[in-house]
């Protein structure tokens, strides 16, 4: 009877742990970024001789849609990159660029990611686009049913990847207006494969009001 009670208790504890792991109770809570925070982020081009610049240059005239990539070799990230790239013709019509930032430049990972992403890619060495407070999902992600559903969805879509690079710091997607229009959409990945809603991205992009120069105002 004693062993049965211990076994039942252990089973109950495991079931409770599994249940809690599939709620949002223990998920890291995102801290909203401010426009000022994003503007001051240091980025670099990925050329042989990198050029450093402030992130505000990406959106100061026409706004921008920006993906903070969790890991270029991740098949879930490649899936989201392809989804966002499907919006590129409509974004081009609106005059809004599509960009991505990565937190590291490992081997040929960025080059191998480019077939999935139809915009320019820059390096965020200090991982600021993944903040202000970086959030990580560790091995708890592998017991979440939502993550396994995302795995199955991406695999069924024909996406594949590798295990190169850091993949625990969660990414996101931003739609930022020009000048001081601000952040129109901020999607923070809550678990592996938690994709942004494409309709929401497009709706936010349509709210962007391009900056008019002083000469145009005259």
Automatic annotation (TrEMBL):
The keyword Cytoplasm belongs to this UniProt entry's keyword annotation: yes
Location within or outside the cell: Cytoplasm
Domain of life according to the entry: Eukaryota
Primary location recorded for the protein, binned into one broad class: cytoplasm
Pfam families reported in the protein's UniProt record: AhpC-TSA_2
Entry GO MF terms: antioxidant activity
Annotated Gene Ontology cellular component terms: cytoplasm
Assigned protein family: Belongs to the peroxiredoxin-like PRXL2 family. PRXL2A subfamily.
Functional summary from the UniProt entry: Involved in redox regulation of the cell. Acts as an antioxidant. Inhibits TNFSF11-induced NFKB1 and JUN activation and osteoclast differentiation. May affect bone resorption and help to maintain bone mass. Acts as a negative regulator of macrophage-mediated inflammation by inhibiting macrophage production of inflammatory cytokines, probably through suppression of the MAPK signaling pathway.
Protein name (database record): Peroxiredoxin-like 2A
Source organism of this protein record: Tursiops truncatus
């Amino acid at each position: 009877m004693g062993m049965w009670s211990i076994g039942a208790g252990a089973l109950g504890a495991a079931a409770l742990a599994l249940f809690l792991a599939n709620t949002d109770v223990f998920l890291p809570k995102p801290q909203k970024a401010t426009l000022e925070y994003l503007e001051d982020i240091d980025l670099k081009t990925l050329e042989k001789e990198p050029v450093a610049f402030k992130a505000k240059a990406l959106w100061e005239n026409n706004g921008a849609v920006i993906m903070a990539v969790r890991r270029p070799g991740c098949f879930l990230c490649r899936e989201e990159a392809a989804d966002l790239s499907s919006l590129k013709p409509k974004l081009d019509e609106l005059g809004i660029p599509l960009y991505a930032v990565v937190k590291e430049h490992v081997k040929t990972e960025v080059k191998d990611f480019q077939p999935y992403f139809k915009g320019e890619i820059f390096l965020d060495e200090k991982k600021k686009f993944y903040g202000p407070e970086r959030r990580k999902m560790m091995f708890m992600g592998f017991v979440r049913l939502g993550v396994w559903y995302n795995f199955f969805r991406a695999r069924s879509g024909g996406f594949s990847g590798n295990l190169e690079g850091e993949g625990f710091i969660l990414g996101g997607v931003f739609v930022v207006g020009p000048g001081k229009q601000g952040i129109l959409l901020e999607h923070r990945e809550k678990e592996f494969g938690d994709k942004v809603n494409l309709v929401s991205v497009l709706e936010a992009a349509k709210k962007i009001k391009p900056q008019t120069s002083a000469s145009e105002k005259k």
